């Protein structure tokens, strides 16, 4: 008996040892221009497919895994996003946009099913279960918000039988992503935000960021043909923090003017005096430390991560080599430098707090900004609540390469685009940039519009895409309580096809911002009045006409003789007739 | 001036006005096509263009929520050059449609069926306007011109309704059945015109030949003929689009009103504000209401079938789900056929004033609601109420006049006397 217990213990130890390489996490900090900082958190856990099928979960969260099994979901991508990535100032998107979502919630999955109907019913199961798991209104993704993209998304994982897989995609642009979505997100992590880099994630700072996106990606990864497969779950958080804003103390978050003695004034200004001051722009990198910026300290490494090798370096910062970085910890840590010292990585101590302190520093080398492959902006033109047009401007900054991309629009049904008005123009050539069009028109109250365009934009050109649309008026029960705010239209998704290829299967994506679409509104206080007034007009017409049809004309002077007119006449007539009948009998 | 010359002058000038408006103001057609008073979801030219675009690009236009018009319009308009780039051919087509409608209207006026029928001869039968004047009233009605410039497909429906009336009053069975089947195929509700027009056709035929045909056999043959023609059109449409989906997208939309785009009618705001659980019930009631006028009028005014048909077009302009000024213009052009009833009408000032009031204030109030934002939906709704009330006053008043006119023939001693309805 005792030996058996020992044996079990041994197995547990071995499992722990082998599993330690199945969980990775990394935080990459990258200062961006204008005193902002990009923080990219990445958590990756693996589970072998065999163990997953047997419901033997180790790092893969059980609640999440069971939902995927129940809905026959083979690959899943969920995104919660707030804010806009400012490509003009910040450059290329983290992960090439592959871990980014449109404003609100975006979800797409490959579901195994025999038919489209089955796939859709499993999709509904999936969104309803995830809705409960993430405390988000994912259950509102119904047929009107679901599309089946044909060109924009390809599976990231390795799938054995891809014929029975159905891709479904849904968006909730109106969804407000907030703290209640972060808590379940952290619970899916093995260290649950108690240790490791996830201990930095605090709702107050995350949702106060200029841009933030939380992503969950589940995909099967196979080693070669017929090799063993693992199910990889990747959780990503990207946030762009405004350093000055984040450093504000939590108990006094309102920005106030500092006393003039504390401000360094630009004495070069003509109006500079004892009581007027223009703040001096010092062009210096601001001072910050992790605790101040994220609102809580980094509580050492998550013990489940690898203890040696590259994967042990869970905190990296990408700055010019001249930037001074001080480490503040009581535990044992290690620093490694790579990529000609622009990347500094730290192996965190276990069980001790860790902090990076960067003092204010005048820099001689500027920040390197990677040029994005494309810039995209989209807006609604026109005025009034009846119709309008959408204009998307896509710019190719490259001087040498033409870029081929897929443009995906998923519009709500009450925004009715006119495809015959779709015009795509390139400013440098008269050639039509549209190569291929996929269009599935909306059906009222049943499904939304799905438009995919494969286009080519020549080097150094700007492509302008416009189309007209008409706004439908809804039934008064279909408007939300804040009807005059307008309705959100999901961001357009752009996927780059050529010549840029990402090294992995993730692809290169960018998304525009969402649009706000004001619809004409009825008067919500009027249902009874409208029913009464319309019915009155109809009754007037009906009564007038049928009154003429069923009665006959007589001269005015004949009326008293006939004894007709009014109730009295009718009754008298009846009595007369009855008398006559009785008399005859 | 001889009649032919007058007609040539009238038609020439009407065509010239239209083509001038088309060419001198190139943005006018699209601007008018976007007006809710002129274009409804089931007649809009912009939606027709979208349907054509989808049709020529092998996407079923009926698998979407935009195109709700008859399938046979697609091959017809796909023969024409693209109106976004070469609008002239379309302009000529719609001008021709208007001229043919006016021609049909002139034929109705010339047949004299409005004053003298087989069973009834109005005592005021000499009080008539010439066919040229009536055609001019149609061609130069601003509502007709606006419909034509907006290229609304209700112009085609109007053409077929007028042709059906003209052929019925001439006693031409075959063309009548064909025209009415086209009208019903395009807009569905003209099917209700069949009974009164059948009576008209029977009267015209009976007065032409010595021996009147058997009424039973006559109606059976024509009903079967109409059914066959409509079925043939539907079948051709199904062949053309490859499925029967178009039924739900065209007639289904007219029946169930899923598209609540504002129009001049009474339905859209009612069903915007309707409680969900009562929607189906009131849809049934409203359609029953529209259909209820046909049997009553046909039976009561058996002797004046053309008047019944005219009144029914007026009912359609008020009580159908997607009316526009095109429906009103059809009715308002048919009313002058009954010039002899005008002295008997009592509320002409009230009716014309409310029509004018609604025509001027309707666009203004719509602008206030949709563009300026200083008004709300009730502004436009109130104007549609006034418009419908004005039209229903004309309908009711002309019906009173027609019945009074009949009374004068039945009882000549009451002519000019006060009468009372009992």
UniProtKB/TrEMBL annotation, chain A:
Residues 1-19 form the signal peptide. It comes from the Eukaryota. Keywords: Membrane, Signal, Transmembrane, Transmembrane helix. Pfam families: Gpi16. GO terms for cellular component: GPI-anchor transamidase complex. The keyword Plastid does not apply. One of its GO terms (biological process) is attachment of GPI anchor to protein. The chain crosses the membrane at residues 528-550. This is GPI transamidase component GPI16. It comes from Trematosphaeria pertusa. The lineage of its organism: Eukaryota, Fungi, Dikarya, Ascomycota, Pezizomycotina.
Automatic annotation (TrEMBL), chain B:
The chain crosses the membrane at residues 85-106, 127-152, 172-204, 216-240, 281-299, 306-324, 344-366, 378-403. The keyword Transmembrane applies. It is a multi-pass membrane protein. InterPro entries: PIG-U. Keywords: Endoplasmic reticulum, GPI-anchor biosynthesis, Membrane, Transmembrane, Transmembrane helix. One of its GO terms (biological process) is attachment of GPI anchor to protein. Pathway: Glycolipid biosynthesis; glycosylphosphatidylinositol-anchor biosynthesis. It is found in: Endoplasmic reticulum membrane. The keyword Transmembrane helix applies. Belongs to the PIGU family. This is PIG-U-domain-containing protein. It comes from Trematosphaeria pertusa.
């Amino acid at each position: 008996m005792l030996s058996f217990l020992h044996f079990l213990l041994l197995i547990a130890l071995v499992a722990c040892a082998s599993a330690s390489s199945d969980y990775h996490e990394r935080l990459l900090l990258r200062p961006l221009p204008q005193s902002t900082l990009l923080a990219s958190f990445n958590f990756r856990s693996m589970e072998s497919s065999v163990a997953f099928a047997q419901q033997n979960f180790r790092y893969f969260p059980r609640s999440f895994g069971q939902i995927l099994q129940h809905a026959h979901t083979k690959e899943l991508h969920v995104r919660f996003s707030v804010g806009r990535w400012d490509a003009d100032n910040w450059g290329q998107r983290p992960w090439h946009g592959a871990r980014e979502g449109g404003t609100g919630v975006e979800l797409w999955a490959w579901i195994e099913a025999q038919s489209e109907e089955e796939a859709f019913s499993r999709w509904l199961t999936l969104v309803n279960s995830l809705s409960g798991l993430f405390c988000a209104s994912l259950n509102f993704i119904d047929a009107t918000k679901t599309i089946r993209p044909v060109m924009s998304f390809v599976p990231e994982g390795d799938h054995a039988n891809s014929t029975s897989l159905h891709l479904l995609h849904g968006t909730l642009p109106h969804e407000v992503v907030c703290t209640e979505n972060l808590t379940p997100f952290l619970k899916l992590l093995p260290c649950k935000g108690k240790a490791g880099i996830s201990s930095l994630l605090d709702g107050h700072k995350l949702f106060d960021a200029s841009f933030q996106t939380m992503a969950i990606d589940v995909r099967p990864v196979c080693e070669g043909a017929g090799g063993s497969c693992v199910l990889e779950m990747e959780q990503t958080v990207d946030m762009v923090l405004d350093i000055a804003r984040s450093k504000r103390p939590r108990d006094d978050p309102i920005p106030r003017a500092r006393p003039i003695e504390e401000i360094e004034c630009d004495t070069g200004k003509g109006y500079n005096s004892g009581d007027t001051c223009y703040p001096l722009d010092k062009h210096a990198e601001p001072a910050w430390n992790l605790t101040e910026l994220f609102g809580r300290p980094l509580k050492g490494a998550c013990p489940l991560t690898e203890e040696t090798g590259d994967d042990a370096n869970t905190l990296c910062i990408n700055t010019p080599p001249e930037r001074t970085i001080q480490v503040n910890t009581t535990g044992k840590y290690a620093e490694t430098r790579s990529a000609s010292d622009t990347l500094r990585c730290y192996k965190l101590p276990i069980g001790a707090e860790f902090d990076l302190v960067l003092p204010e520093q005048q820099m001689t080398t500027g920040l390197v900004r990677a040029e994005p492959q494309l810039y995209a902006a989209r807006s609604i033109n026109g005025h009034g609540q009846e119709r309008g047009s959408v204009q998307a401007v896509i710019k190719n900054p490259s001087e040498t390469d033409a870029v081929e991309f897929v443009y995906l629009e998923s519009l709500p049904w009450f925004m009715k685009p006119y495809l015959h008005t779709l015009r795509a123009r390139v400013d440098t050539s008269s050639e039509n940039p549209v190569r291929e069009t996929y269009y599935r028109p909306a059906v009222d109250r049943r499904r939304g519009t799905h438009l995919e365009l494969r286009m080519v934009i020549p080097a150094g050109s700007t492509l302008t895409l416009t189309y007209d649309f008409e706004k439908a008026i809804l039934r008064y029960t279909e408007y939300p309580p804040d009807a005059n705010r307008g309705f959100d239209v999901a961001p357009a998704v752009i996927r780059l096809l050529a010549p840029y290829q990402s090294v992995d299967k993730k692809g290169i994506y960018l998304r525009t911002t969402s649009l706000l679409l004001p619809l004409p509104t009825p008067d919500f206080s009027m249902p009874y009045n409208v029913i009464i007034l319309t019915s009155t007009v109809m009754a007037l017409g009906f009564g007038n006409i049928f009154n003429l049809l069923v009665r006959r004309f007589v001269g005015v002077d004949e009326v008293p003789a006939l004894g007709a007119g009014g109730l009295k006449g009718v009754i008298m007539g009846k009595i007369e007739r009855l008398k006559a009948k009785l008399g005859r009998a | 001036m001889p009649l032919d010359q007058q007609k040539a002058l009238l038609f020439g000038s009407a065509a010239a006005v239209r083509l001038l408006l088309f060419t001198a103001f190139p943005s006018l057609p699209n601007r008018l096509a976007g007006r809710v008073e002129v274009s409804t979801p089931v007649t809009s030219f912009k939606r027709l263009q979208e349907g054509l675009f989808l049709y020529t690009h092998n996407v079923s236009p009926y698998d979407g929520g935009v195109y709700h018009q008859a399938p046979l319009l697609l091959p017809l308009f796909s023969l024409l050059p693209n109106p976004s780039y070469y609008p002239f051919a379309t302009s000529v087509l719609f001008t021709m449609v208007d001229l043919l409608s006016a021609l049909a209207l002139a034929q109705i006026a010339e047949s004299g069926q409005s004053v003298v029928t087989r069973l009834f001869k109005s005592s005021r039968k000499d009080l008539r306007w010439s066919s040229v004047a009536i055609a001019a009233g149609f061609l130069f009605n601003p509502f007709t011109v606006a419909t034509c410039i907006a290229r609304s497909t209700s112009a085609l429906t109007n053409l077929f309704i007028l042709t059906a009336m003209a052929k019925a009053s001439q006693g031409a069975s075959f063309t009548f059945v064909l025209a009415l089947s086209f009208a019903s195929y395009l807009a569905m509700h003209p099917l209700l015109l069949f009974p009164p027009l059948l009576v008209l056709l029977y009267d015209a035929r009976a007065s032409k030949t010595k021996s009147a045909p058997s009424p039973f056999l006559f109606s059976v043959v024509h009903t079967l003929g109409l059914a066959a023609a409509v079925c043939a059109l539907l079948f051709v449409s199904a062949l053309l689009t490859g499925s029967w989906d178009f039924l739900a997208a065209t007639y289904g939309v007219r029946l169930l009103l899923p598209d609540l785009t504002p129009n001049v009618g009474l339905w859209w705001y009612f069903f915007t504000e309707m409680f969900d659980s009562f929607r189906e019930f009131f849809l049934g009631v409203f359609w029953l209401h529209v259909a209820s006028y046909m049997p009553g009028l046909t039976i009561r005014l058996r002797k004046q079938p053309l008047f019944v048909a005219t009144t029914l077009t007026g009912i359609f302009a008020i009580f159908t789900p997607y009316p526009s000024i095109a429906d009103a213009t059809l009715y308002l052009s048919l009313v002058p056929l009954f010039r002899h009833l005008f002295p008997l009408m009592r509320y002409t000032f009230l009716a014309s004033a409310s029509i004018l009031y609604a025509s001027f204030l309707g666009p203004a109030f719509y602008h206030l609601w949709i563009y300026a934002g200083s008004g709300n939906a009730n502004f436009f709704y109130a104007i549609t109420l006034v418009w419908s009330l004005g039209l229903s006053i004309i309908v009711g008043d002309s019906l009173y006049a027609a019945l009074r006119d009949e009374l004068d023939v039945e009882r000549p001693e009451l002519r000019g006397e006060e009468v009372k309805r009992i």
